[in-house]
Structure of VOC family protein:
Amino acid sequence: MTEQTINAPVDDQGDRLITHLRHVDLAVPDYDKQFAFYTEMWGLTPETTDDGIAFLAAEGSPEQYSVRLRRADEKRLDLISFGAATPADVDQMAQRLGSDGVQLVTEPGAMDTPGSGYGFRFFDIDGRTIEISADVAVRQHRKIEGGESIPVKLSHVVINSPNPETTVGFYERHMKFALSDTLFSPHMGEVMWFMRTNPAHHSLAIARGPHVALHHASFEMRGIDEYMRGTGRLLRAGVEKVWGPGRHMAGNNTFSYFLDPHGNTIEYTTELVELDEDTWHPHLYDFSDPEVTDQWGTANPMNELVAKQSFNDPDRGVFIAPPV
């Protein structure tokens, strides 16, 4: 295995205002098919639904919802939502971004999504809509029992960028995300950056891609058994598998990637490592080493076809705020 540790200084989390990942919101032309897939096959619960919009919760998560589906003429990533501890932190975050010249979509204020709360939206450097919120009501959730192959929570979101170094710099500088690890190859250079906003190895990752798009959204399962049961359920149902099952080196988490009905890559995972942020130093992992991509050696090989599926379609929502 080829690995290099970056002797970077320990990150200062003193001014970090983002606490965690809340939800990912998707616009889809095939709304009914997607709704059925995410509820009946993937294992999310329709917490709140309306005409052409659904808020889907993970049973083990206190978040009001982990996925929002919206009926639309074009497929797009509507937004990615992150939490803050207090309304004062939301205000400080908005002020920080505004002072740095980041384009705000909305000013901080009361939210009318499930759980209410206080938040605002802005465009990141690639034109994605990002939401920051606090004081969202806690959803009544429960412990996922042994053998239940449904998501506990939304684990992380990975995004494609044609200028990933700039995108990584944006999240480090403006949102105080910290770099956990980086993937590279001798032929392609650096291709993926894993970023954290709490001790979880990553809640966001940025991949080098040909255009701005969602790379994948990942959902945490209770454990290895539940992860494998969920993987097997989708395989038996004929859902198209992209890659897996296996275990990554960076993050040490398991992976099984599938395509939803409109071609978004989604993942079942478990056992994402929790870091000691005071002592952690980022690594450079050479993903041309098969053990880096899959420690178990059980997944289908990472090749151009697998990579191309995760490029996804070009996002039609760049610098266009979602209507809701």
